[in-house]
Specification:
Blueprint: E1 2-6, H1 8-13, H2 15-27, H3 40-55, E2 59-66, E3 69-77, E4 87-95, H4 104-118, E5 123-129, H5 133-140, E6 144-154, E7 160-169
Helix pairs in contact: 2-3
Length: 176
């Protein structure tokens, strides 16, 4: 498995694969901000819009390839205010249904945590659907559960679901 951080141009280069990943994730029932059915054109347009945020330094996006196929992605939303430069929001962790159970999500999560700490970020936060497989991943990866908010977001089916808020403190690497 290889994990790489995308530039804006790199994101455009793999936008088709990312659109396929996004539609597969929504079709699989994951609550990541979209309702089903999500058309491929809408998914592609959404990813292409992210390239502007990457170019502006407001987003950082990583992808995981296994056997030459893009099977996962994760991103950080980076703050633009001076008093919050020490933190970032983890957003859009997705793994294609064909890539689950291979450690893709755990590898992406560890990569982002390491790279964020190296960049001086000392606090990450996220929200995820309560009771989802992602919630179990974050607990097992040492994230701290803050609490749950009822009826926070709609699942792809439209049903309102609770979300759980997590955070993780990062320790910057020791510079020698």
């Amino acid at each position: 498995m290889t994990v790489s951080r995308l530039t804006a141009a790199g994101l455009h280069d793999v936008a088709d694969e990312l659109a396929d990943l996004l539609t597969d994730t929504v079709d699989g029932g994951a609550s990541i901000g979209f309702l089903a059915p999500l058309g491929r054109a809408a998914a592609l347009a959404w990813w292409q819009e992210r390239a502007d945020a990457v170019a502006a330094g407001h987003h950082a996006v990583w992808v995981a390839h296994v056997g030459g196929r893009l099977l996962g992605t994760i991103a950080l939303a980076l703050p633009d205010k001076p008093n919050s430069r020490h933190r970032a929001e983890l957003v859009k962790l997705m793994v294609h249904r064909n890539g689950r159970g291979q450690g893709v999500a755990r590898t992406l999560l560890a990569t982002v945590e390491t790279e964020a700490a190296a960049a001086g970020i000392t606090l990450l936060h996220l929200d995820t659907e309560t009771g989802s497989p992602a919630e179990s991943l974050y607990v097992s990866a040492g994230w701290t559960r803050v609490g749950a908010i009822p009826d926070y977001a709609a699942a792809p089916s439209g049903e309102l679901r609770p979300t759980t808020i997590f955070y993780k403190r990062l320790v910057p690497p020791v510079r020698r």
